[in-house]
Amino acid sequence: MPHTRLVPEFTFTADRIEQLREVVPEAFADGKINWEALGEALGEHLEPDDASAEHFGLLWPGKREARRLAAVPSRGTLLPVPGEGVDEERTRNLFIEGDNLEVLKLLQKAYATRVKMIYIDPPYNTGNDFVYNDSFTDPLGDYLRKTGQADEKGALTTNTRTDGRFHSNWLSMMYPRLRMARTFLRDDGFLVVSIDDTEIHHLRGVLNEVFGEENYLATLVWDRNRKNDARFFSVGHEYMLVYAKAKDVLIERDVVLRAPKEGVEQVRAEWERLRTAYRNDWSQVRAGLKLFFDTMAPDDPMKPLARFNKVDERGPYRDDGNASWPGGGGPRYEVLHPRTHKPCKVPKRGWVFSTKQRMEEMIAAGVVVFGDDDTLVPRIRTNLFERTDQVLRSVQFSYAQTASQQFDAIFGGKKVFDNAKPFNDLAKLVDYLCGPDDLVLDFFAGSATTGHATWLANRVGGTSRKFICVQLPEPVNDKELSGKNALSMGLTTIAHIGKERLRRVIKQLRKEAKPTVNEDLGFCVLKLVQSHYKAWEGFTGEDVDQVQIRFDDAEEPLLPGWTPGGLLTEVMLVEGFPLDSTVADLATTKENRVQVVKSEYCAHRLLVCLDKKVKDTSLDALAYEDQDVFVCLESALTDQAKQRLADRCTLKTI
Predict the structure, then answer these.
(1) ∠ CA 587-593-598, rounded to 5°
(2) Residues 279-294: pLDDT tens digits?
(3) What kind and span of H or E run contains 369?
(4) CA nearest 139: which of 100, 197, 92, 83?
(5) CA–CA separation, 329 vs 354, rounded Å?
(6) What DSSP character marks residue 248?
(7) Which residues contact 280 (CB under 8 A, 6 or more apart)?
(8) Residue (of 181, 168, 6) closest to 107 by Cα position
(9) Whole-number pLDDT of residue 51
(10) Residue 538 pLDDT more than 60?
(11) Spatial contact of 472 and 129, defined as CB atoms under 8 Å apart
């Protein structure tokens, strides 16, 4: 097999042609192909037969550039920063500092279809400083200038409501990131986006286009607080839009989402106390439980359990459940009343149980409750202690003031960040949507609430879910109290706050309980930097001398100052190996350092040697396996060695 020069691969849009609608839903409108959108999604320009054809959808100035921005290759890479994380040798959690669109492009090949849940809390379009001011012509260079890694340090822009492109600017920022996000989700994955009233209707339009309207699942409403200074209404709520990657896959796999009922164990403890105190006098126990619930605030998560307002030896229960088939068209058969022995009235929609045998089993189990006579439709009994899970409600109460106080407590009572999301609420969502070992991605990480929430969800569910948090190193606002407090603690950017928050939470969790063997209380840090590879830039093709210069440069394709650790990370991403792959030195090579990269998501191994010269003895000791890829510096091998390797494995050189 001939050897090939290793160059970064940034997209795989050619693969999107297969199963077109599932992979490129944004190229469809009104059930027809939008040829312009399809062409831009594939990185080409296609002319439809009817150039004047109209399609239903959300349009705004700049949408075409935003769509194309997702296809612009990144010229960056991710550089590990040892010492900024915790338990870095063992952890599979990642905190990445950089522009999220560039980072998503770099992660795409290694993490496509691997993520179970994406949660993002993007900047709300409030008319304040707008940090995501994407440059179509030079996205990475724009980022490097803003963060002081290039000659010019860019300033933030302001997206004011008086700007005619107020909504357009925000949508152009969101669109390419959401398009990239979809490629990361598994077929049974979920996207959850926090948003407020300003852009929710526009965001729904974009998500319907990118994910497909048929994959919309719910709009969750979170009641945060009451604003008594409002002129007309107290708008104290926010939303979370929830989309599936493929709703039909969830239905096909019979996925049913359920969460534990909050407070069941507390109610059980009170019920046990009351039944002991009143010696199983159920009327007294019922009165005591009613008083127990009456003392709760209306937004207490245990309050809905008050609906179980009857009591017997099986605990609190309710017997007002509907015995009819949901939606209508259910089975109809005779059910005899136990006292009158006459057929009971059949619900208009038919019985809830599919067969008479199943109905008789439920009657024997005490699930079916009959009325005084056969003229009444029987009801269904539900026992609180026998079914302790429930579907998540679309309306939740979660006070912003409580969330702020809980976050401030992490930093010793100091406010270093405004409007932190409630980590307990997010932990509930992670536990609801994700199973063991699932991966959670947040590319608007802010103060790293998602990382914190994932750890909490793991402790509740006893699983080992992992996270990737991506955050722009946005400077803190030194005009606000939170920014001044952050600066006093040496936290100059939002990314610094996120990393410090994770470090403090790890200490807190370890103090609360000793980590289990499989618990991953750690994270690694990486930063977005310029690629180690030289880029062919500034050449128009008109100067022949420039062609020779470019070819001369190609003899040494790497930029000066590259490090083995940084280059290894870039090679892993180029080859599609995730950042949590295992990396170990090959024991059989003594004269050269050869690192072996393995991942459960890759069918082959990646062997990497970045020494200046690779000895023949090392090549003989590599012990290749089927489909192995060997990567080294091109200058490290003789022509004869290249031919020998090409006959034995896939050789790629840098």
Answers:
(1) 65
(2) 999 999 999 999 999 9
(3) strand 368-369
(4) 100
(5) 11
(6) H
(7) 313
(8) 181
(9) 47
(10) no
(11) no
Which segments of 535-599 does DSSP mark as H helices, in order? Answer: 544-554, 564-574
DSSP 362: H
Confidence tier at 223 by pLDDT (50, 70, 90): confident
**Domains (ranges, CATH) in the chain?**
4-56 (no CATH), 66-258+392-528 (3.40.50.150), 264-390 (no CATH), 544-653 (no CATH)
User: Token digits for 391?
Assistant: 């579907």
pLDDT of 162 over the 50 cut:
yes
Of 627 and 501, which is predicted with more confidence? 501
- Residue 632, φ and ψ in degrees, nearest 5: -155, 175
Tokens of 535: 């880029």
Helices (H), 262-378: 264-277, 282-294, 356-364
Nearest to 413 by CA among 482, 365, 496, 500: 482
- For residue 458, the one-letter residue type is N
From the list 300, 319, 323, the residue with the least C-alpha distance to 309 is 319
Q: Are 382 and 317 in contact (CB under 8 A)?
A: yes
Name the 3-class secondary structure at 198: coil
Q: Is 556 helix (H, G, I), strand (E, B) or coil?
A: coil
Q: How far is 535 from 342, CA to CA, in rounded Å?
A: 86
Q: What is the pLDDT of residue 12?
A: 46
Residue 29 phi, psi (nearest 5): -150, 135
Is residue 12 classed as helix, strand or coil in its secondary structure? coil
Closest CA to 477 of 491, 465, 463, 466: 491
Please state, in angstroms and as integers, the Cα–Cα distance from residue 226 to each residue in 233, 235, 408, following that order: 9, 7, 21
Q: What is the dihedral of CA 76, 78, 81, 86, to 10 degrees?
A: 150
- Please give the C-alpha separations between residue 640 and each of 273, 313, 431, 489, 621, in angstroms, as whole numbers: 83, 84, 56, 58, 17
Strands 76-80 and 524-530, by their bridges, are antiparallel
- The model's pLDDT over 548-573, given as tens digits with 9 standing for 90+, comes to 555 555 567 888 889 999 999 999 99
> What are the distances in angstroms from CA 174 to CA 162, 258, 259?
20, 30, 31
Distance of CA 577 to the CA centre of its chain: 19
Task: Name the average pLDDT for the chain.
Answer: 86
Q: What are phi and psi of 299, to 5 degrees?
A: -95, 10
- Give Cβ neighbours of residue 387 (< 8 Å, ≥ 6 apart): none
Tokens coding 59: 């349009």
With a cut of 50, say whether residue 1 has pLDDT above it. no
What span, in angstroms and rounded, lies between the C-alpha atoms of 369 and 613? 82
> Model pTM?
0.81
String of DSSP letters for 503-549 = HHHHHHHHHHSPPPTT----BEEEEEEE-SB----S--S--HHHHHH
Over range 57-73, report the average pLDDT: 86
As to burial, measured by CB atoms within 10 angstroms (0-12 exposed, 13-18 middle, 19+ buried), residue 198 is middle
Q: Which of 591, 607, 590 is closest to 645 using CA atoms?
A: 607
Do 42 and 16 form a contact (C-beta atoms < 8 A)?
yes
Q: Using only the alpha carbons of the chain, give its radius of gyration.
A: 30
125-139 pLDDT, tens digit each: 766 555 666 665 566
